[in-house]
Amino acid sequence: MKKYAYMALIGVLCLAFSQFLIYDYAPTERTMGYAQKIFYYHLPLAWWCFVSFFISFVSAILYLFKKNMCYDRLSAVSAEIGFLLATLTLVTGSIWGRQSWGVWWTWDPRLTTTLVLWFIYAAYLVVRTMAMPNEKRAAVSAVITIIGFLDVPLVFFSARLWRSIHPAVFASKGGGLEAEMVHTVIFCVLTFAFIYIPLLAFRLKQVQQLQSMETLRTRMLYEEN
Amino acid sequence: MNAIQALTYANIAIWLGIGAYCFFLAKKQSEMDRRLNSLILQSKTENDA
Q1: Measured between CA atoms, how close is A191 to chain B, in angstroms?
Q2: Sequence ranges of the domains in chain B
Q3: Chain A residue at shortest CA distance from B10
């Protein structure tokens, strides 16, 4: 756990350093001005949200095949963090949209599919809190995760497949970004890795301990009777 | 809202979001520690009896 604590510390320091890159190093875009710099947070959040849901999806499949609760825990924790990242992606996107499109929200394919994804995982988190046997909860959750993940490729390709006002950043080579912009966005993507991995590790350990404690309590109650 | 304000708000949202999740983790941990302590106490009382 200590290595994750160091990793989290590096993540926070990198997040602070990314401020310098965003405000000073990366050039200001001509049409959108400073508002375009929201992109340096928005894109890493969205990408790590996809990674998170992908880990959750793979773990859910593994759970259904192997019936090992470790996979269920990993799937649940990854979906929880993915939900946080999806929320932040929507919030930062909305602020950026207000600045560049003049509206907080529009029913654009990219935005709508992302909102659908957010609702699916919100429902998933509600299901996780419902009182039911652990195995049943794990199976239901795995099915929701697998179905929910089908929306991720839709979100990713929506800006390319349908007429969307949302830019598909790396659709063309380099995405029309200057070198400094690319460096900054890569740094921000890596920074979020240092935040995502420790969060995942801490929460996973916590859920594992919680389940062990529940087992112990049940055993004690059983022995009492 | 001007562009600088928009960027600042987005920044605040991220720090708040991650901070809130860390707070949630810390709260869960302290709740778990409390429950664990009560379990240990319960187990000790049973052993003594």
Answers
A1: 13
A2: 24-49
A3: A92
